[in-house]
Design goal:
Blueprint lengths: L7 H5 L3 H11 L6 H5 L21 E3 L9 H14 L3 E5 L5 H6 L9 H15 L1 E8 L6 E7 L3 E7 L2 E7 L5 E5 L4 E4 L16 H21 L4 E5 L5 H13 L16 E6 L9 H15 L3 H4 L5 H27 L2 H5 L3 E5 L8 H13 L5 H7 L23 H25 L16
Antiparallel strand pairs: 1-5, 2-11, 3-4, 3-8, 5-6, 6-7, 9-10
Helix pairs in contact: 4-6, 4-9, 7-9
Length: 447
């Protein structure tokens, strides 16, 4: 969207309504987020469903099974999304498109890069398929950003021999987008050639979790209902029964400091009821939770932020890193042409796992890599979350900490000095009569 500049002196002289009118004439009118993302002419004519190997009409719909509404599963998804949002885009190659530059900070006007990655992770975990659409400059060619969409239904269509996706949203809006321009991320892809198979397999676990919550709530309600049964000594009318009940209940209130309830011959017997709660036992509940953890590849330590560095490294390699690799390839294919990719242009996502390590591990790794010239000072600062400093981009090696760009000069100079020293020693030995001596002191042992 084009920015409009209005200096205070000029705008201040205009009435408020006139200022609004001037700005509205200068800016494009966007009725909704849908218009802002898909603001180019839309395709209407289609030739039919796109045929694949396994299905004539490949499509997927947003799952309405309440996966994100359950407390445990939402916590698992949220913890993974938080860690994934720390991934950093790494743009390589000489081509620097506008979208790649925007990806470093704000892929679209409504999300920062961490929010963008976090939403993709969440959609992928819930639906097994996440779709990323390009935001173009209005010409249908130049990509200026990316947006993760959540359609209620996605269908594959054949448009003049090419694969297009028809996205239908809960608002009723629909749009056709070329497959080559859409980034498709999948999990559990088996039956469908294009999309993930969905998270319906978790439905039994969700039902058990819901049943457990319902049972606990029912047990609480029962415990707060009838606690005593009183048997009257003789037949009474309804009015006498109600008065007797109220009189006995009054003794059970908080005002009864002694805690003793008494009854006269009006009652022949009073029996206390012990409420029985029908809940899932601890072992069964543990099985339910483990089922959810297995499905998402997580555990309780990750969700509660109690994981040590070994546990987190396992989680990173098993869940975060595969997501980062797939996201990098998807964004790269959306951004660059095949020729640009062949010439080394790519976008990948990385994370500094040492941020989650202990200080001892951080120090050991930093010293080892810094002393060998593999890391520079700023990379070590990143590990300890410290600011970069002037000259921190230079690499040094252990010993004299010589600048790598000057190491050849220093080596040559030291070699010349050693040769000169050796020549002087040989001359002294010859003049002293030790020319035939077999053992000659090494020049390295002299100054």
């Amino acid at each position: 969207m084009r920015r409009v500049h209005c200096d205070e002196e000029h705008c201040g002289r205009l009435p408020r309504d006139d200022r609004r009118l001037e700005l509205s004439r200068s800016q494009p009118f966007l009725r909704s987020l849908f218009d802002a993302v898909f603001h180019r002419p839309q395709m209407q004519a289609v030739n039919g469903y796109f045929s694949t190997f396994t299905a004539y009409a490949p499509s997927f719909t947003t799952w309405q099974g309440g996966l994100y509404e359950a407390e445990l599963t939402r916590s698992i998804i949220e913890s993974g999304a938080d860690h994934a949002s720390k991934l950093k885009p790494e743009v390589s190659g000489s081509a620097q498109p506008v979208a790649a530059r925007a990806l470093r900070q704000q892929p679209n006007p409504w999300m920062t890069t961490p929010q963008f990655i976090k939403r993709i992770w969440t959609i992928l975990q819930v639906n097994d398929t996440a779709l990323i659409v390009p935001i173009d400059a209005g010409d249908g060619i130049t990509i200026t950003g990316y947006y993760p969409v959540l359609p209620s239904q996605c269908e594959a269509y054949d448009v003049d021999g090419e694969l297009w996706l028809k996205l239908t949203f809960p608002t009723g809006d629909s749009v056709l987008v070329e497959w080559s321009r859409v980034g498709v991320m999948t999990r559990h892809q088996y039956q469908s050639d294009l999309f993930g198979d969905g998270t319906n397999v978790l439905q039994p676990t969700l039902e058990l979790m819901h049943a457990q919550n319902e049972a606990e709530q029912s047990a609480i309600n029962q415990g707060a209902a009838i606690r005593f049964i009183g048997k009257l000594s003789q037949n009474r009318n309804e009015g006498d029964k109600e008065r007797a009940r109220k009189a006995f209940n009054a003794q059970l209130s908080a005002d009864n400091a002694g805690g003793i309830a008494v009854y006269d011959k009006l009652f022949s017997d009073v029996e206390q009821i012990t409420p029985t709660s029908y809940t899932v036992d601890a072992a069964q509940m543990e099985r339910i939770e483990k089922s959810a953890y297995r499905f998402f590849g997580s555990n309780e330590d990750i969700v509660t932020n109690c994981a040590d560095e070994d546990t987190f490294n396992s989680y990173y390699e098993g869940r975060i890193e595969p997501f980062a690799v797939q996201l990098g390839f998807v964004i790269t294919s959306m951004t660059y042409t095949a020729n640009e990719i062949a010439h080394g242009n790519s976008i990948m996502f990385s994370a500094n796992r040492l941020e989650f390590a202990s200080n001892t591990t951080k120090l050991n790794v930093s010293v080892a890599l810094f002393d060998r010239g593999i890391w520079n000072g700023n990379q070590v600062a990143d590990v300890f979350q410290s600011p970069h400093y002037e000259g921190g981009e230079r690499h040094v090696i252990r010993g004299e900490y010589i600048d790598l760009e000057l190491i050849s000069e220093h080596t040559a100079e030291q070699a010349a000095q050693a040769a000169e020293t050796n020549a002087n020693i040989a001359a002294i030995d010859a003049s002293s009569g030790y020319g035939d001596k077999k053992e000659v002191d090494d020049a390295s042992e002299t100054e």
